[in-house]
Amino acid sequence: MNICVFLSAADLDDRYTVPAREFAELLGRGGHTLVWGGSESGLMKVVADGVQAAGGRLVGVSVEFLAAKARADADEMVVAKDLAERKALLLEKADAVVIMVGGTGTLDEATEILELKKHGKNTMPVVLLNTAGFYDGLRQQFQRMEDEGFLPVPLTDLVFFAKDGVGALAYLEESAGLR
Length: 179
Known about the structure:
single chain; 179 residues; alpha/beta; 7-stranded parallel sheet; 7 helices
């Protein structure tokens, strides 16, 4: 399965990097392909290293203004002209999406895939990996949106919140009929 992972390129502390590496190793051992932003820095590097070390493939989609930070030894690397094209290419190459911890770029990617799902323009499974409770506030906001009628479909149809990488991967593999 090609799993697109949206996540930070920032250097983060162990409460985020250790679970990220564990999830990456699960992906690699499971024979999955990581589709990611292609960066050789921060949490993106941690996840790519973990997937690759465990035998998984790496498919990166960088963007022109960040191409100098792209991973040289990825199995495949595409350079998009801008962020909009990058998001489209990431989703085009994916069978499923996992949203890990990140900043505004990750939040932008997350809301775009959920908006596409809401309108039936994308049906792939989406997981928010809620490492260290990072997305507790977002989950609460999404629940409020559902409760107050802002979501035309149930939140559970849009996204699965996973506490850890084992739960995230189990959900994806079950959704794909691999379990």
